[in-house]
Amino acid sequence: MVLTGAEIVIRCLQEEKVEYVFGYPGGAVLYIYDALFQQEAVRHVLVRHEQAAVHAADGYARSTERVGVALVTSGPGATNAVTGIATAFCDSIPLVVISGQVPTAAIGQDAFQEVDTVGITRPCVKHNFLVKDVRDIASTIKKAFYLAKTGRPGPVLVDIPKDVSMHKCEFEYPKEISMRSYNPVVKGHSGQIKKAVQLLLEAKRPMIYTGGGVVLSNAAEQLTRLTRLLGYPITNTLMGLGGYPASDRQYLGMPGMHGTYEANMSMHYSDVLLAVGARFDDRVIGLPSHFAEEPRKIIHIDIDPSSISKRVKVDVPIVGDVKEVLEEMIRQLESGEARPNPEALAAWWKQVEEWRGRNCMVYKNSDEIIKPQFVVQKLWEVTGGEAIVTSDVGQHQMWAAQYYRFDKPRRWLNSGGLGTMGVGMPYAMGAKLANPDMPVACITGEASIQMNIQELSTCKQFRLPIKICNLNNRYLGMVRQWQQLFHGQRYSESYMDSLPDFAKLAESYGHVGIRVDKPGDVEGAIREAFTTHKNELVFLDFQVDQTENVYPMVQGGKGLTEMILSAEDL
Amino acid sequence: MRHVISLLIENESGALSRVSGLFSARGYNIESLTVAPTEDASMSRMTIVTTGSDDIIEQITKQLNKLVEVVKVVDISEAAHIERELMLVKVRATGKDREEIKRTADIFRARIIDVTDASYVVELTGNQGKLDAFLGAIEPALILETVRSGVCGVGRGDRVLKL
Ligand SMILES: Cc1cc2nc3c(=O)[nH]c(=O)nc-3n(C[C@H](O)[C@H](O)[C@H](O)COP(=O)(O)OP(=O)(O)OC[C@H]3O[C@@H](n4cnc5c(N)ncnc54)[C@H](O)[C@@H]3O)c2cc1C
Ligand SMILES: Cc1ncc(C[n+]2csc(CCOP(=O)(O)OP(=O)(O)O)c2C)c(N)n1
Ligand SMILES: [Mg+2]
């Protein structure tokens, strides 16, 4: 069948079973929008800013096992998309971003709305393509989806000049794709796995440390089985929350800068550390030289060899897909007789429980003023822990991670690696479209939400009944906290002045807005949002304590065990 | 430590900038980088001379391997290998210098490939040390231009970098 390039693009998306494309039109993609108009299988979600298009596609991908798709025009459309692409890149999220480009003959001529999109995005994509011939569109899009979702996932950009989308050729979608230069290792080396199992069984102070790789590999079930089989303590990074049920006894909470005392102490003093799909981020291990002081053997499972021994020297590297490797570990354990030494394990747990006994997550609640932690706890209670929760970046993000206990994967969507303010509402949009029957809440701050506030309009158009929980502290709270602790309380530009009345703002878009001032009204307001206004977008504007800080905290440049547990420690 | 990394890469436009961009973005050193198509025109071979600790070199090879268009990577300096670089030097050649330069060129097995009444262009191939030595042997004031190709290298014996 002979089709135009634009029609081919849409046919490819249909072949990939794409439900939603998040995008914004413009000159260079007019043919593609025309082709989109003339079919119904692929639905388009018109956002109000291209950054939000990519974030929404990203939220869609994070909350499912699927590839998110965004479509933007050349020039400013593409540059607006860059933050979204970089955000997905830093957290290894599979996306295909299609951008329009000026006609091939105009490339390099400083044409209207021309930027070197492939050049600009090169350092923040898994791969990108400029398609110069209509006959290459189908195979390139096939490759883009294949690259995005296999191996270590990531965003792939396909730049299509306007004339290429207008030209015609015979369409055939390739069934298979293979690339001689790209062959990710999936199955772990069995000898290495054997060594790892042996080491784990001999451990006296074992610890399991898991991350986003478990979620990306859809391996929560395998992780849970292995962890229970061994009976060892476990921690999930900010990106790995929900990889292991947070309500389980073996779970010690999150590690790192704002992790729990018990998770950090157990990481630090373990003699065997099993790292699963986690990349020893600087926010997780603290000062690397301090972390290296304690002798411990490290086993590291990761699909990307470059994640292994990058920041921390690893003793048993296992390159492979988490799910495959964990299954093999379970198989080897179950088929053998050997079990962990019960006495050593009991002694280790006694120590771990002592650390847990410090109760580092308690905070002083108040009858007068709303504590942000309290709002998150109530949200968790009211939703029974069953909501998809997105967040923005700042203090509220940390409180969300600490106090909403995730028992299942793909329920917690946030920007960990890039820390992009403004992702919260677009993530919630993508998640709601992907999971229409699930409650979706966005925990945000008054500063972050304003970075993509225009999306209230998209939510109106597509009737997305997400619940926005604004922990309004009238501060760039996370910045203020650092200024208080490390910059002599000089609050340089961290106060949020001239805020809108968020409830009224939401109402002006036809949504429901509720302002909450008193602790006693928190639970009622949340209930109202999820029951009375179940099918509406509700903007809950909680006026919270302005001075609250996130604890525990490991300062930059300090070791994991040198934690500030509460304000009293200062 | 100095390392010579050889790689095969798909001969696509932009492939070179992926490699050079990787080095600049991650702060790795490049002493030299050469690239040209192989006998299979769809692939190019690149030789990169870099320096770094063992950990950094390990990351460099891993990061290079991760580039989607890179087919194969080897650190050829890990075992016996041969390195060659081509140099063209334009020198001022007048009076008694003409004979002196010619003699030096002969000693280094260099060839004079362009002659005018005031200059020579000398062509010399060898490892970096030999090229440096030649430059050292010529009176600096006589050197008008030097052009070096950067190092290319190959493993000795059975070691073959092929698809
Ligand atoms: C304000 C702020 C504060 C923060 N504080 C903390 C904190 O206190 N604690 C914390 O933990 N984080 C914190 N972070 C997040 C931190 O910056 C990192 O994003 C996060 O720790 C990285 O998580 P990860 O190690 O799980 O790696 P990810 O970024 O999730 O990487 C996943 C790893 O798994 C691998 N992988 C992917 N797919 C597979 C597969 N199928 N099989 C095998 N391997 C796979 C990848 O190659 C990669 O190495 C904070 C972020 C912000 C913005
Ligand atoms: C796009 C962007 N700009 C700047 C920052 C730096 N930053 C991190 S947290 C933060 C403050 C966030 O304020 P708010 O959304 O109100 O959250 P709070 O910390 O008060 O809960 C800032 C400015 C960032 N992460 N992202
Ligand atoms: Mg704030």
From TrEMBL, chain A:
Biological processes annotated in GO: isoleucine biosynthetic process; L-valine biosynthetic process
Pathway in which this enzyme or protein is active: Amino-acid biosynthesis; L-isoleucine biosynthesis; L-isoleucine from 2-oxobutanoate: step 1/4; Amino-acid biosynthesis; L-valine biosynthesis; L-valine from pyruvate: step 1/4
Enzyme Commission number(s): 2.2.1.6
Keyword vocabulary terms for this entry: Amino-acid biosynthesis, Branched-chain amino acid biosynthesis, FAD, Flavoprotein, Magnesium, Metal-binding, Thiamine pyrophosphate, Transferase
Name of this protein: Acetolactate synthase
Thiamine pyrophosphate enzyme central domain ranges (all copies): 193-328
Cofactor: Mg(2+); thiamine diphosphate
Entry-linked InterPro entries: Acetolactate_synth_lsu, AHAS_TPP, DHS-like_NAD/FAD-binding_dom, THDP-binding, Thiamin_PyroP_enz_cen_dom, Thiamin_PyroP_enz_TPP-bd_dom, TPP_enz, TPP_enzyme_TPP-bd
Reactions it catalyzes: 2 pyruvate + H(+) = (2S)-2-acetolactate + CO2
Family: Belongs to the TPP enzyme family.
Domain Thiamine pyrophosphate enzyme N-terminal TPP-binding: 4-119
Cofactor note as given: Binds 1 Mg(2+) ion per subunit. Binds 1 thiamine pyrophosphate per subunit.
Residues annotated as domain Thiamine pyrophosphate enzyme TPP-binding: 392-541
GO cellular component terms, semicolon-separated: acetolactate synthase complex
GO molecular function: acetolactate synthase activity; flavin adenine dinucleotide binding; magnesium ion binding; thiamine pyrophosphate binding
Species of origin: Thauera linaloolentis (strain DSM 12138 / JCM 21573 / CCUG 41526 / CIP 105981 / IAM 15112 / NBRC 102519 / 47Lol)
SUPFAM superfamilies hit by this protein: DHS-like NAD/FAD-binding domain, Thiamin diphosphate-binding fold (THDP-binding)
UniProtKB/TrEMBL annotation, chain B:
Any Pfam family the entry gives: ALS_ss_C
Annotated signal sequence range: none
GO terms of biological process kind: isoleucine biosynthetic process; L-valine biosynthetic process
EC class: transferase
Domain of life: Bacteria
GO cellular component, one term: cytosol
Matches recorded under CDD domains: ACT_AHAS
Record key words, sorted: Amino-acid biosynthesis, Branched-chain amino acid biosynthesis, Transferase
A molecular-function term among this protein's GO annotations: acetolactate synthase regulator activity
Pathway(s) annotated for this protein in UniProt: Amino-acid biosynthesis; L-isoleucine biosynthesis; L-isoleucine from 2-oxobutanoate: step 1/4; Amino-acid biosynthesis; L-valine biosynthesis; L-valine from pyruvate: step 1/4
Subunit comment: Dimer of large and small chains.
Protein purpose: Catalyzes the conversion of 2 pyruvate molecules into acetolactate in the first common step of the biosynthetic pathway of the branched-amino acids such as leucine, isoleucine, and valine.
Descriptive protein name: Acetolactate synthase small subunit
Organism: Thauera linaloolentis (strain DSM 12138 / JCM 21573 / CCUG 41526 / CIP 105981 / IAM 15112 / NBRC 102519 / 47Lol)
